[in-house]
Amino acid sequence: MISHSKIDQTLKILLKEQKITTMLDRLSKKYNPFKVLISTILSARAKDEVTEVISKNLFKEYPTAKKLASANKKDVIKIIRKIGFYNSKSKNIINASKMLLEKFNNQVPKTMNELIELPGVGRKVANCVLVYAYKQNVIPVDTHVHRISNRLGWVKTKSPEDTEKALESLVPKRHWQILNDTLVSHGKTICTPISPFCSKCPISAYCNKINIKKHR
After folding, report:
1. Selected catalytic residue, list 6, 29, 89, 142
2. Could you read off the pLDDT of 53-92 as tens digits, one per residue?
């Protein structure tokens, strides 16, 4: 059983390495719920740097749910085409915007059950909205969080949904809001999917190094 003290120490080291002030500054900012929602829907299977540029361009043309709901799908595709899966994503963000207007009084919901009613929204997208837009204590689990939690030996799970449940019972609630940012940053720079940089890892002493793939 992983102890809370081990998790505390691991996260403390990662936060120090990743410049805790920058991360906490991000968490302290008030993000527009609509923009968090739409950009996170777009982010599925896409690199963050690509999502950021495309989302910025999209919001220049469609800064509100009302404008995006009335957008022509072909015009939206022209903006988001480089992100991949643009056909389904354009449909989802337009229909999600319509649903915000028609069912939620032009407000992005603040609960998981309501959020996952929106097209293109699963638990990961919903939790990102709840954390970054509404500062709720939840744990968004993407591929980085799922992979690293298993490699560290914190959990032994096969799906992001199972990882979310396991982390909620394991990680002290005071860490929930920073967990996604912390592990995503670590996953991009050190604990990469294939051939991770274990020799450079600041938390190697706390890692069980489970399921690490290396090039032959």
Report:
1. 142
2. 999 999 999 999 999 999 999 999 999 999 989 999 999 9
96: closest CA among 75, 116, 74, 76? 116
Q: What is the pTM of this model?
A: 0.88
CB 138 within 8 A of CB 127: yes
* Residue 25 known to be catalytic: no
Spatial CB neighbours of 179, under 8 Å, sequence gap ≥ 6: 11, 139, 145, 167, 171
Q: Which domains does the chain have, with CATH numbers?
A: 4-27+139-206 (1.10.1670.10), 33-133 (1.10.340.30)
* pLDDT tens digits for range 167-200: 999 999 999 999 998 999 999 999 999 999 999 9
- Active-site residue, from 60, 124, 135, 162: 124
